[in-house]
Amino acid sequence: MKTSFGPKTLLYPTPVLAVGTYDANGKPNVMTASWGGICCSQPPCMNISLRKATYSYQNIVDRKAFTLSLPSEEQVRQADFFGLASGRDTDKFAASGLTAVRSDLVDAPYVAEFPLILECKLVHTAELGLHTQFVGEVLDVKIDASVLDPEGNVDIRKLKPILFATGSKEYYGVGKFLAKAFSVGKES
Amino acid sequence: MKTSFGPKTLLYPTPVLAVGTYDANGKPNVMTASWGGICCSQPPCMNISLRKATYSYQNIVDRKAFTLSLPSEEQVRQADFFGLASGRDTDKFAASGLTAVRSDLVDAPYVAEFPLILECKLVHTAELGLHTQFVGEVLDVKIDASVLDPEGNVDIRKLKPILFATGSKEYYGVGKFLAKAFSVGKES
């Protein structure tokens, strides 16, 4: 039996993405967002939605670029901090002790200590309401050797990405392996 | 030390979303997609990207509506099947034994047995390349009583949503609780 909850943003899971940008003075900023993901395979594109009130919003409009840095489980405290403080009055890199590295492909910085980085060039903007959706074409993905398997592919057990649970506003880790995709359904 | 992987769709986690639509003859269809998520809080909006080659693509263009049904771990086989078969030559509801229910708010069906449903009215379309991104305003969320906690909120431990790992193409469950969001970062 299903109950109506009305129009709500309940979807599981959402990712935890640290959005890296430069402000008008070239100061690096980073904010955490979970309204985002993959939106195109060719060219590879990522979407991220920000409120206009955020400091990062104008940075993306001006610089036409952003990065997404994915934190690992042990970085959950810093990732949450990046969503609480504002770049208007805080140097979040200095405050967290993490390192801003300038992307050599797009006009934006990323978080050196986070294990997976997507460098994105702004290609599409949609005004949806409280949030503006930015779509960025991925020009490069940079990954720490420490989260790769022996074949050189990402091992999700080593990456340990964080999931954000909407509604309860909680962070979770990745759990048990369930099945191979494009495979288990063939038994249907 | 980071290695460049070039432009790729590597982001963790992505959700597993069964997209429900009606075709030109009113036959219900459902396909699984992971390029999607939340993109606006007010009005609540979800985005989902589909290739033009999919049967569901034209259905959304014509009907200006879709639903997202979130499967639970024990439904991983059906969810994967929905991504393997095509509505062009298969009645995926009949083949899977699952039930198509007509939304009373939008012109699209949802999967009765899946625990969380989002009913979406198309409000924005973006041609991004291989994928077209559809943004739908959420008119209602319907949730099974069985996945709610005693206070009537979604319990992610009962919902057991599926995560899709890009790259390795694997499904995982939700793992351990890490921290409260908008909270643990205050200790920074």
Task: Give the SSE map.
The structure is a homodimer of 188-residue chains.
Chain A lengths: L1 E5 L7 E2 L1 E6 L5 E6 L2 E6 L2 E8 L3 H9 L1 E6 L5 H9 L7 H5 L3 E3 L6 E3 L4 E12 L3 E14 L11 H4 L3 E3 L4 E11 L8
Characteristics:
homodimer; globular; seven-stranded antiparallel β-sheet; mainly beta; 188 residues
Task: Explain how this protein is built.
Two copies of one chain form a homodimer. The first copy, chain A, has 188 residues and is mostly beta strands. Helices cover 14% and strands 45% of the residues of chain A. Chain A is built from four helices and 13 strands. A seven-stranded antiparallel sheet of chain A has the order 4-3-7-10-11-6-5. In chain A, strands 2-12-13 form a three-stranded antiparallel sheet, with no helix packed on it. Chain A has a two-stranded antiparallel sheet with strand order 8-9. The longest helix of chain A is centred in the N-terminal third of the chain and has 9 residues. In chain A, 55% of the residues are buried. The mean pLDDT of chain A is 97. Chains A and B meet through strand 1, strand 2, strand 5, strand 6 and helix 2 of A and strand 1, strand 2, strand 5, strand 6 and helix 2 of B. Strand 13 of chain A pairs antiparallel with strand 13 of chain B, so a sheet runs across the interface.
